[in-house]
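User: Can you predict the 3D structure for this chain?
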Amino acid sequence: MDDRVIFHIDVNSAFLSWEAVYNLENGGTEDYREGLFAVGGDVETRHGIILAKSIKTKPYGVTTGEPVVNAIKKCPNLKLLKSHRNIYSQYSHAFINVLKDYSDCIEQFSIDEAFVDMTGTRLLFGEPLDAANMIRQRIRNELGFTVNVGVSSNKLLAKMASDFTKPDKTHTLFPEEVPLKMWPLPVSDLFFVGKNTAQKLNSVGIKTIGDLAHTNKEVLTGLFKKQGEYMWYAANGIDDSLVTPEHPDAKGYSHSTTLPYNVTEKDEAKMVLRTLTERVCERVREDNVKAQTVTVQLRFNDLTRSTHQCTLETPTNITDEIYSYVSKLFDEKWDGTPIRLLGVQASNVTSDDSFRQISLFDNTNYEKLEKLDKALDTINARYGRGSILRASNLKNQKEDS
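Assistant: Here is the predicted structure, written as structure tokens:
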């Protein structure tokens, strides 16, 4: 067996669990996890999507990412809770801080899940299953919410294992366990195989993960191109990706966010990128500098990541200008693979008095854009971020409420 030991640790119904813990810690008496509750959408208008739901909604068929209106049709007694992202960030940090006591090699895959490389820690924490249970029980006892821990020798199988029976469970899925534990599952259960891909696989007779594992790799490549090859490796439990901790880059200004569900729509991704760009540009302007290099970071739900950058002819700190490059970079790089993290970075900075080379064919009023940015910065600094928004962000705010 491979000597590597990888854990995937996933908070059970994270946003709902964190709302429940916060409510109980602040004098509330109702545990939202024990009723028909869901987080997401607009509580009054019932627009938006479900971000998290209690386990008790499962028999009704309520799913994460579906429109609130659909969820209420399935479960008329469903009670909606408003999301509080600042609370989620606090609990996420506490969660990751616990993991840091067991390994210095942690890759936070999203706000509520992380890969932990536990290779070589047996003398410190015992056998992998014992160590996993130790972490799981400590999080429950100290932080008040539960996690699932998947244990394997690679990231893919650890992720698959953590999705087995929930909540508050530890599961193993080592390569030799794949035929018994993974192959009988429907192909839609394979990590990153979405609804449309599953339907296409079913249409050609591939119903289970085992069917997929025994399909000729070339046939899958012909049907799905690069994704087909990756699906074949995944179905056979093959994955050599490393747990890669992220280290802050002090040479630039960056902001990223892990997403609560797989983003598959371009407009939705760009609304997130727009918000990230605004955060980055605020910081650039605050330091009275301009950036000449723009980078977009993407992390996908198949464990891969990608960055794409460009160098501008003229340094800038104008939000609209930098976002135009961010949008273009995203269009050039994204191939439709579901996204779990988005990030924007502005780097290669220079002093604010740099000269702008104006083109005869460029009708952009840069002075007007600079004044607009400064006005927005002043208002947000005085009254708090979100006190005034660009029109392009109004839809995003409504759906995120």
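The chain is about 40% helix and 20% strand. The radius of gyration is 23 Å.
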